[in-house]
TrEMBL record, chain B:
GO cellular component annotations of the record: mitochondrial inner membrane; nucleus
Residues making up the signal peptide according to the UniProt record: none
PANTHER family per UniProt: 5-DEMETHOXYUBIQUINONE HYDROXYLASE, MITOCHONDRIAL, COENZYME Q10 BIOSYNTHESIS PROTEIN 7
Spans traversing the lipid bilayer: none
This protein's name: COQ7 protein
Length: 313, 145
């Protein structure tokens, strides 16, 4: 009797929950929210209900939501107690997964909402999931750039560990910068056809803060792993110079048709050499300047002596 | 050496989890700028009063400031904080302030020094108060102060 009453109450609560959600939320949010609500409701039912009614309860969630299936490797609805923690992912994680899946459709569809929709489809979600994002493909490009930067950081961290363990030689700065920029630009090769479109998206005014942030943190990372420890204005000049090198090389790469982008890497080599020379030149200019000032001071003291003015009273 | 911050080349990263990065960055950047400015003030004073009787005193205080600046340089690299973009300005302004106050005579130079030190210590105290909100997390930095 009690179990039946409990089941009726559970059914009522479930029906009410779903009705409310249907009115309020857009499809993808609803998908997440309903699953979360249902799981919470199912939690509440655990104590009063017997296991049989619990299983009947569980069968409901699987039917109307086929998108839960792709979360395949995780045990979705096998157990009664373990559901909540394994399956529940944040909206951000879901967005990440959709965008990552969408990347493979970029060569075909470009950096657009169509690519995102295709990506959502491979995850078993409806194409309406692309409605979560802007219609101009901004998030897709930013997600990709952020992923590349993370990969670059990991690569540089690995190299640094190897040097510390003595497994590899420490590269000279010029070589290090060249390799780091080359490694980062090579990540663009699979998407090189559509990269000009991506660049124009990154330059849209509402994307500029984010894309600038990603660019500056990447350049800072490269210099950090290159061993830069400057604490004066050099900090800025070095980063500005490397940013210039990176941007110009990226543009050259867009128009490069040589095998394996040889021309690009040669261009990069020359630019980095210029940059390093610029540093040396700056030092030379400064020391020349200092020498000239000292010469003038010496001349002034001599004149003062000659004129008899330099007498300590 | 205070703080226990390790300084291997390239891997000067302090564990950055759980600390308020923007707060730390602001603190280190401002303090570094302050120490740099103080250095330039003493340089200016030395340029004018270097050969007078207070010369040795000023030089001694200048050396202390050089130590402080060195410490902040190390912290800056360890926490990967960017230096202030106004450094060239502080370079000139500090030198001019030091030279100007020295031209007012020895008393002027000393008065300038006292004023600067007072305001620095007020500033550091308020930073310590900010860091003391979570002493464990900021142990290293507090030791420096």
């Amino acid at each position: 009797m009690a179990a039946a009453g409990g089941l009726r109450r559970a059914g009522w609560r479930l029906w009410r929950g779903r009705a409310v959600l249907r009115c309020q939320l857009s499809p993808p949010q609803r998908a997440l929210r309903t699953s979360a609500v249902l799981r919470r409701v199912s939690e509440e039912q655990k104590e009063p209900l017997a296991s049989s009614s619990q299983q009947q309860f569980d069968s409901h969630p699987t039917d109307p939501r086929p998108e839960q299936e792709p979360q395949g490797p995780r045990p979705s609805y096998t157990g009664q107690g373990g559901q909540e923690s394994e399956d529940y992912e944040s909206e951000e994680q879901l967005q990440h997964r959709i965008l990552t899946a969408a990347l493979e459709f970029v060569p075909e569809h470009g950096w657009t909402a169509e690519a995102i929709a295709e990506g959502a489809k491979t995850l078993g979600l409806s194409v309406a999931a692309a409605g979560m994002f802007h219609s101009d493909g901004s998030e897709l490009v930013l997600h990709f750039v952020s992923q590349c930067n993370t990969k670059l950081s990991e690569l540089l961290e690995q190299e640094q560990k190897q040097v510390q363990l003595g497994e590899a030689e420490k590269k000279p700065t010029e070589q290090f910068l060249r390799d780091a920029v080359e490694a980062r630009l090579r990540m663009l090769i699979p998407y090189i056809e559509k990269w000009p479109q991506a660049l124009s998206i990154l330059l849209l005014p509402h994307n500029i803060p984010a894309s600038l942030n990603l660019l500056t943190s990447m350049i800072d990372d490269i210099w950090h792993y290159a061993g830069d420890q400057s604490t004066d204005f050099n900090w800025y000049t070095r980063r500005a110079v490397l940013t210039g090198v990176y941007n110009t090389t990226e543009l050259v790469m867009m128009q490069d048709s040589s095998p394996d982008f040889e021309d690009t890497w040669r261009f990069l080599e020359n630019r980095v050499a210029d940059a390093v020379n610029m540093g040396n030149t700056a030092n030379q200019v400064q020391s020349t300047g200092e020498a000239v000032v000292q010469g003038l001071m010496g001349a002034a003291v001599t004149i003062r002596n000659l004129a008899g003015l330099n007498q300590r009273r | 050496p205070a703080g226990g911050v390790s300084l291997r080349l390239c891997s000067t990263r302090v564990t950055l989890e759980g600390i308020n990065k923007p707060l730390i960055e602001r603190i280190i950047r401002v303090d570094h700028a302050g120490e740099y400015g103080a250095n330039r003030i003493y340089a200016g004073q030395m340029a004018v009063l270097g050969r007078s009787s207070v010369g040795p005193i000023i030089r001694q205080m200048w050396n202390q400031e050089k130590d402080h600046l060195k410490k902040f340089n190390e912290l800056m690299v360890a926490y990967r904080v960017r230096p202030t973009v106004l450094l060239p300005f502080w370079n000139v302004a500090g030198f001019v302030l030091g030279a100007g106050s020295a031209l007012l005579g020895k008393k002027g130079a000393m008065a300038c020094t006292v004023a600067v030190e007072e305001s620095i210590s007020d500033h550091y105290n308020s930073q310590i108060r900010a860091l003391m909100e979570d002493p464990e997390k900021y142990k290293d930095l507090l030791q420096v102060f």
